[in-house]
């Protein structure tokens, strides 16, 4: 059995992005391969924000596994199902994250919590059913909350504030002590007024716009 400790987790927000590169093709594969425009500047290990005609991929954050000229393998992005990812319909664009800013002073006890992402079910019983039946109907919206000891002088403060004020999706990265990572894209929110406890605290809220992506290292 392998356990992942939350203590020691590093939280970061994407603070700088590169230019948008057109994605002219993307494969149906265990790890999708995207064809991007010449001069993309993307290298192995980069994180990309994806814009795609595939709803399950649109807005998602993925890491680059390999680069072969203009063909980029998206690590951990399984698009084999043509029911979920219709062939030829996934084109769009990619945007490279060029810098992350660490969010420091995260509270240890209850400092990182998440909610949502659970499966939803729709009633599917017919009149002659003695037992109720339900069928899967997607998932609930997912939110991550990060509680910090408030200090507006810290470098990340203006980055988070700008993300909240601009109301545009910005990526989050969680790096756990064992090296595994969770990346997601979403809307940020942070109150102007910190919570009045013994020590001033603020809770940053992050509402995901696409599924999170997990990496073992």
Short description:
By secondary structure, the protein is mainly beta. Helix content is 6%, strand content 46%.
Architecture overview:
With 217 residues, this protein is mainly beta. It folds into 2 domains: 16-99, Beta Barrel (Elongation Factor Tu (Ef-tu), domain 3); 102-215, Beta Barrel (Elongation Factor Tu (Ef-tu), domain 3), CATH 2.40.30. 6% of the residues lie in helices and 46% in strands. The chain has 1 helix and 14 strands; from the N terminus they run E-E-E-E-E-E-E-E-E-E-H-E-E-E-E. It has one helix at residues 155-166, and strands at residues 10-26, 33-36, 47-52, 61-68, 71-75, 92-103, 112-115, 119-123, 134-139, 143-149, 170-175, 181-189, 201-208, 213-215. Strands 1-2-5-4-3-6 form a 6-stranded antiparallel β-barrel. Strands 8-9 form a two-stranded antiparallel sheet. Strand 1 and strand 2 (33-36) form a beta hairpin. The longest helix is centred in the last third of the chain and has 12 residues, at 155-166. The radius of gyration is 20 Å and the shape is globular. It starts with 9 loop residues before the first strand and ends with a strand. The model has no long low-confidence stretch (mean pLDDT 95).
């Amino acid at each position: 059995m392998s356990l992942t400790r939350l203590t020691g987790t590093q939280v970061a927000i994407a603070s700088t992005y590169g230019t948008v590169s057109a994605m002219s093709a993307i494969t149906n594969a265990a790890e999708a391969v995207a064809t991007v425009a010449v001069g993309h500047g993307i290298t192995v290990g980069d994180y990309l924000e994806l814009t795609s005609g595939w709803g399950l991929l649109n807005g998602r954050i993925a890491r680059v596994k390999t680069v072969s000229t203009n063909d980029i393998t998206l690590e951990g992005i399984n698009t084999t199902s043509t029911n979920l990812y219709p062939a030829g319909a996934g084109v769009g664009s990619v945007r490279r994250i060029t810098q992350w800013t660490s969010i420091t002073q995260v509270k240890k006890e209850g400092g990182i919590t998440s909610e949502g992402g659970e499966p939803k079910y729709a009633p599917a019983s017919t009149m002659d059913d003695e037992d109720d039946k339900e069928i899967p109907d997607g998932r609930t919206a997912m939110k991550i909350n990060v509680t910090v000891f408030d200090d507006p002088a810290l470098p990340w403060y203006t980055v988070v504030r700008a993300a909240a004020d601009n109301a545009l999706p910005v990526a989050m990265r969680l790096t756990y002590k064992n090296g595994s990572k969770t990346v997601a894209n979403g809307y940020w929110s942070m109150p102007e007024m910190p919570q009045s406890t013994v020590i001033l605290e603020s809770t940053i809220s992050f509402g995901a716009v696409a599924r999170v992506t997990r990496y073992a290292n």
